[in-house]
Specification:
This protein is mostly helical. The protein is built from six helices and no strands.
Length: about 110
């Protein structure tokens, strides 16, 4: 008698687990960036990144959709988030480099809207 049958095929089982892990990882990352942004950045940059908040007006934060921010490279945005600039706080001791990378791509997404 064969050990594999329609109810338990090890290859299909392992494949299903890998697919599940893969999609959880993608989902988890997107959620991380959104919840980090909400926790740490919204008060100055606004939920939609348009800098439409009283804090943005008093600190001079620009909309992520503005041409000035659009023309900055990912590397520049990463440096500003890491090291800070003017009233923008430095996050090098508060976030990990991968978290900053995720936030920069999140900021890019917001800037497209
Ligand atoms: C205390 C208010 C404040 C908070 C909190 C804040 N920012 Fe900023 N941010 C600013 C200001 C002000 C600037 C503009 C700095 C300048 O060029 O003078 C800025 C600039 C930036 C820029 C560069 C875009 C540009 O305007 O040139 C990025 C990217 C950015 N912030 C991301 C973030 C992220 C990500 C977070 C959360 C982890 C965050 N900021 C939290 C105030 C803030």
């Amino acid at each position: 008698m064969s050990r594999t049958n329609a109810f338990f095929n090890p290859a299909v089982f392992i494949f299903a687990i890998l697919v599940t892990i893969f999609f959880c990882a993608i989902d988890g990352k997107a959620q991380d960036a959104a919840s980090l942004y909400k926790a740490k950045c919204v008060m100055c940059h606004g939920a939609d990144g348009k800098a439409d908040t009283p804090a943005a007006k008093s600190t001079g934060a620009r909309s992520f959709s503005s041409p000035e921010v659009q023309k900055e490279s990912d590397a520049e945005l990463t440096t500003i988030t890491t090291k800070g600039k003017a009233k923008m706080p430095a996050y090098e001791n508060k976030l990990t480099a991968p978290q900053i990378t995720q936030l920069v791509s999140y900021v890019r997404e917001l800037g497209k809207k």
